[in-house]
Amino acid sequence: MENVIYIVGIGPGEEAYLTGQAKKVLEDCDVIVGYTVYVDLVKAFLPQKEYMATGMTREIERCRLCFSLATSGKKVALVCSGDAGVYGMASPMYEMLSEYEGVELEVVAGITAANSGAAVLGAPLNHDYCVISLSDLLTPWESIEKRLQAAVMGDFAIALYNPSSRRRFDYLKRACDILLANGADRSRACGFVENIGRKGMKATVCSLGELREKEVDMFTTVYIGNSESFIYKDKLITKRGYK
Amino acid sequence: MENVIYIVGIGPGEEAYLTGQAKKVLEDCDVIVGYTVYVDLVKAFLPQKEYMATGMTREIERCRLCFSLATSGKKVALVCSGDAGVYGMASPMYEMLSEYEGVELEVVAGITAANSGAAVLGAPLNHDYCVISLSDLLTPWESIEKRLQAAVMGDFAIALYNPSSRRRFDYLKRACDILLANGADRSRACGFVENIGRKGMKATVCSLGELREKEVDMFTTVYIGNSESFIYKDKLITKRGYK
Question: Edge-to-edge, what's the strand order for the sheet holding A157-161?
């Protein structure tokens, strides 16, 4: 019999945002593994489980821990915030899978920040859209720049992950400048959501010109509308195209 | 007091894929409105509610029905498959909102097909990605073509919605040809999932050259990897970039 490791997206963090499937997998597993912050989110509503947490940048170690537990017969759930397949642990787990005999993986989808934040802002991604991370820890900045250019060229609505950090404090400004230099208007409708689905949640709408001057933190998801998006009161709306 | 209309994403359709939040909103509302097929999916697990269904292409009528019910004091939930803010009813509802005094909207996020299908295929969207609909009912084909070109140029992983229909039987082939003409290799790793989370679910991996020859129906979500995506056994994996 194969041992299955479940790679579970928990959404923004609170119990209400998990799917029934994700909840059941977490309840049924022997041990829940994850980044410290996500493990604490799950502990809040499932206190009676066995947990193993590893710190930031310990992703590969965390994956190997899951395989090691599964090989020893444990039923493991690896938790990720949002969706496990969006900048999450699904792909590193699959990249290692060939090294471990008799283990299978199953990804349990969750609501990724692009979509949970979009619900708060109204409907910013209601047509073709791109999801781009501004973190250059694992991606060369040239690739990020190329994707921002392509996103404007294709007139996509855009969700930006990891718009900032202590080390990358000016990355959102750099990203806005690339969009502006490639044809997006300063008046382009934009917005951002801080602490989606958590304490301190806050949504803001603004123009691209204004966005360029904003300071946001790493717990923020940023939205750039396409050329037809508009702001209505405190909402950012990208048209579907109905007449 | 404002009347709130909840615009609820139900995910792929079965009860297990709803969030707790979506489930609670549906249980608490007076009437559930939606496209016939989605209403039937919800009826299967919430049979005791009042439902009002309208047919395909009746989207605007459906929205006005919700506002009319809300104005008369009913607590309304408008259901959409997947996420209500991804090719869903969130934006047409916001576009009409200014016509109705005393009504508020709240979008309840669900898991969109890009992400629920990705979980089945492994990890095809585990880096920057685009979501593109091939339906030209509401979007000029030139815009779709421009977005496909931009998606290859930016080396995004891609999820394609509405890849086919009776009238648009050759659109997936046309899309593949645009990707090939703009620099994607015939060997590019791809895949598709039919009937995500429903009876008859089936996942297939293939090359872009092979995808071009496939016949898929409208209940299929198609994935094109980026230039570094790969197939391992029956899974499609887009690398996150860990060394």
Answer: A202-207, A189-194, A220-224, A157-161, A129-133, B129-133, B157-161, B220-224, B189-194, B202-207
For the record, the structure tokens of B137 come out as 């009912």
Question: Whole-angstrom Cα distance, residue A137 to residue A153?
Answer: 25
For residue B235, the chain A residue with the least C-alpha distance is: A94
- Comparing alpha-carbon positions, the chain B residue that sits nearest to A147 is B154
Of A155, A205, A145, A141, the residue nearest A184 (C-alpha): A155
- Quick one: A114 exposed, middle or buried, by C-beta within 10 A (0-12, 13-18, 19+)? buried
Contact B18 A23 (CB under 8 A): no
pLDDT in tens, B42-59: 999 999 999 999 988 889
Token pair in block for residue A80: 């990720």
Which residues in chain A have Cβ-Cβ distances shorter than 8 Å to B143? 155
Query: Does the reported pTM lie above 0.90?
Result: yes
Residue position matching structure tokens 């894929």: B17
Q: Which two three-digit tokens encode residue B6?
A: 């909840």
Tens of pLDDT along chain B (243 residues) come to 569 999 999 999 999 999 999 999 999 999 999 999 999 999 999 999 999 999 888 899 999 999 999 999 999 999 999 999 999 999 999 999 999 989 999 999 999 999 999 999 999 999 999 999 999 999 999 999 999 999 999 999 999 999 998 888 899 999 999 999 999 999 999 999 999 999 999 999 999 999 999 999 989 999 999 999 999 999 999 999 987
Q: How far is CA A86 from CA A1, A142, B68, in A?
A: 29, 21, 38
State the smallest CA–CA distance between residue A215 and chain B in angstroms: 23
- Which chain A residues are Cβ-neighbours of B133 within 8 angstroms? 127-128
